[in-house]
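Dear H.,

Thanks for agreeing to be a second pair of eyes. The structure we're designing against is below in token form, covering all 279 positions.
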């Protein structure tokens, strides 16, 4: 058998199989928002997310380090295309849950797919008392406390170092501050990962909130921008970053970011991910 015949056999064997792209992102989050990644089957991710106060709060608040918000969550891979998660954060004492469905996976070979595509559906429910969120003397109906978010996650890993993701987003809030404010919000998120070393990458994430036609919002909000690093240490992934967003769930960081980078309204934050194999 000639070398040409061996090359042909190798080419045919390669083309008859499908090679799926892995590790488009290192974690299930880029920074605040979801990445295309999901937990493998029967693996549980325990996540701790923490945000300090703003840098411009001054020395009296130790430039934000005296203040903090925390979010705890458990996220589990049910099948090779579905993961679910539940969490609780102290900001507005909010409970949340989500499901992430993998629709397409980037691949080459017998099946050539240039992108990965997932659908994220999440809901949140806040339990804060009316006076804790500035609604003193008012009653909040049970179903008014819910919010729903739907996202398409479209990602591509261009090479071993660079990955890019786009996230068209729809947010519905049952409760808004006034009847002039929109219950429905559209946004487009974008994020990328650039791998610096085998265990360190830089992550950047930005959400552009499409303003309503008649913008009468009582509270001025800004588009969230986050910049940070992923640090992998065996079974843990640490994400260290700065962001102008206070919250860690889509409903809040997309629609209710009230500080901006230009006046030092940025916060230091971190996410810690610990994965357990249950089977």
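And this is the sequence the design step returned. I haven't edited it by hand at all.
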């Amino acid at each position: 058998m000639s070398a040409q015949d061996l090359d042909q056999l190798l080419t045919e064997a390669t083309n008859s199989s499908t090679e799926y792209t892995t590790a488009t992102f290192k974690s299930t989050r880029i920074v605040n928002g979801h990445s295309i990644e999901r937990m493998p089957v029967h693996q549980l991710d325990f996540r701790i997310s923490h945000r300090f106060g703003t840098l411009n709060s001054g020395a009296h608040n130790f430039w934000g380090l005296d203040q903090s918000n925390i979010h705890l969550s458990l996220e589990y891979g049910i099948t090779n295309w579905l993961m679910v998660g539940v969490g609780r954060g102290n900001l507005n004492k909010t409970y949340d849950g989500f499901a992430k469905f993998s629709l397409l996976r980037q691949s080459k070979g017998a099946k050539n797919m240039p992108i990965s595509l997932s659908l994220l559906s999440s809901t949140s429910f806040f339990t804060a008392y009316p006076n804790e969120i500035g609604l003193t003397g008012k009653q909040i109906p049970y179903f008014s406390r819910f919010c729903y978010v739907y996202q398409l996650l479209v990602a591509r890993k261009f090479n071993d170092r660079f990955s890019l993701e786009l996230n068209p987003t729809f947010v519905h809030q049952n409760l808004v501050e006034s009847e002039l404010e929109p219950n429905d919000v559209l946004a487009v998120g974008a994020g990328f990962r650039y791998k610096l070393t085998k265990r360190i990458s830089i992550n950047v994430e930005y959400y552009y909130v499409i303003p309503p036609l008649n913008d009468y919002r009582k509270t001025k909000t800004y588009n969230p921008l986050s910049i940070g690093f992923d640090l992998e240490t065996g079974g843990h992934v640490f994400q260290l970053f700065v962001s102008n967003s206070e919250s860690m769930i889509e409903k809040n960081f997309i629609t209710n970011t009230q500080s901006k980078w230009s006046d030092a309204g940025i916060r230091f934050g971190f996410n810690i991910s610990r994965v357990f194999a249950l089977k």
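Two observations from my side: The chain has one domain: 3-277. The two ends are 46 Å apart (CA to CA).

Warmly,
E.
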